[in-house]
Design brief:
Elements: E1 2-6, H1 10-22, E2 26-30, H2 33-42, E3 47-51, H3 59-68, E4 75-79, H4 84-93, E5 97-100, H5 105-119, E6 126-129, E7 132-135, E8 140-143, E9 146-148, H6 152-163, E10 168-169, H7 171-178, H8 189-201, E11 206-209, E12 213-216, H9 223-233
Helix pairs in contact: 2-3, 6-8
Keywords: DNA-binding, Phosphoprotein
InterPro entries: CheY-like_superfamily, OmpR/PhoB-type_DNA-bd, Sig_transdc_resp-reg_C-effctor, Sig_transdc_resp-reg_receiver, WalR-like, WH-like_DNA-bd_sf
Pfam families: Response_reg, Trans_reg_C
Length: about 240
């Protein structure tokens, strides 16, 4: 999952980014409202942490403009303002959740996990498919109850596919959501990680849909059901 942190306090920005990266996310950062608005308007983030008291542009106007442009990614407001009126203003502008400073980093992580799974239509932080289980809260993966050790890149890939199980995910979408802007988009890195992941899992749940991308589905899924799911998803990423 690819996240954006918009926070002008450099120390706090660094702390949040570090915690998110340790939790397995790819994170971009911005330190003022103009930069934050531009990144959020042009990059396909899975969620954004947005401070309200920003230089150049305040967080409320940034968020309001994202929503006017039909940018639907979950946004977690982060601010020192604790008056109920400020919270109402944030929610009315399009915020999905709200955290008041000071806070514990574990709360930020928990709230982001909740936003991400709700955005993907899941109620639990535990995902399963064809005997493979992923616990997003603990960062653990198992097959038929046996723990599997994955690299951070392999875990991020499996997590993204789990969040979007049953839908064809294109290679371009994977690159956009799992890697930063410096990633070589012409490389075969995605194919390499998919092959490694398949080998480690030992369960045929990652299916290649020729010309479209990858589909996470139980191995017992019949061909007719597979074609039906491909037809419904169209092999494209969700709209902005």
């Amino acid at each position: 999952m690819r996240l954006l942190v918009v926070e002008d306090d450099k120390d706090l920005n660094r702390q949040i980014v570090t915690a998110l990266e340790l939790a397995g996310y790819v994170v971009d950062r911005a330190f003022d409202g103009e930069e934050g608005w531009f990144l959020g308007d042009t990059e396909p983030y899975d969620a954004i942490v947005l401070d309200l008291g920003l230089p150049k542009r305040d967080g409320i106007s940034v968020l309001a403009d994202w929503r006017k442009a039909n940018r639907t990614m979950p946004v977690l407001i982060l601010t020192a303002r604790d008056r109920w009126g400020d919270k109402v203003q944030g929610f009315d502008a399009g915020a999905d959740d709200y955290v008041v400073k000071p806070f514990h980093m574990e709360e930020i992580l928990a709230r982001l996990r909740a936003l991400l799974r709700r955005a993907a239509g899941h109620a639990s932080s535990e995902f399963s498919c064809g005997g493979v289980s992923l616990d997003a809260r603990a960062g653990r993966v198992s097959v038929d109850g046996n723990p599997i050790k994955l690299t951070s890149h392999e875990y991020r890939l499996l997590s993204y596919l789990m969040h979007h199980a049953g839908r064809v995910v294109s290679r371009g979408e994977i690159v956009e959501h799992l890697y930063d802007q410096d990633f070589d988009r012409d490389s075969n890195t995605i194919e390499v990680f998919v092959a490694r992941l398949r080998k480690k899992l030992g369960v045929d749940i990652i299916q290649t849909v020729r010309g479209l991308g990858y589909l996470l589905a139980p191995p017992e899924l019949k061909d007719a059901d597979l074609k039906d799911r491909i037809g419904k998803s169209g092999g494209t990423r969700p709209g902005r």
